[in-house]
Amino acid sequence: MDNALTIAALKALRRILRTSELANRQLAVATGLTPSQLLVLHEIGEREDVTPTELAAALQFGQATITNIVDRLEESGLVTRQRSAQDKRRVNLALTSAGARKIETAPDTLQTRFIERFAALPDWEQAMILAGLGRLADVLGTDHDAAPLLDSGAIDRSSAI
Fold this sequence. Notes:
By secondary structure, the chain is mainly α.
């Protein structure tokens, strides 16, 4: 492979990593939340009477990851856990008014920008990018599954800073 192509590829990767890091820092400064915490807050806010299990399935996160994130959000006063009136075994999650305010004041995330801009590309270009990213993951030796979240840190970390 041409050395110039290798250097260009490494620069592009660095730009992506740096953009992700900067976006995470901006989100942390503005809200005190990580991208995954904000994503969980959004999902709880969009659903009525959602359980942690339903949330994990919708976001494609592990159950333990959701539990850790919800624990932190609850400690921060952003969500509550409530037993269902119809089925006492069921625990529903709900936003508090502080949680709703966090969502309203949060800046657009890098993930939101990616989803919007990627969706606007033609299908052939989306497929080409996906193939390239999949191959890049193979080249880098990333053989583990990952949640569909544009964030380089641990999903259930306590904060982005």
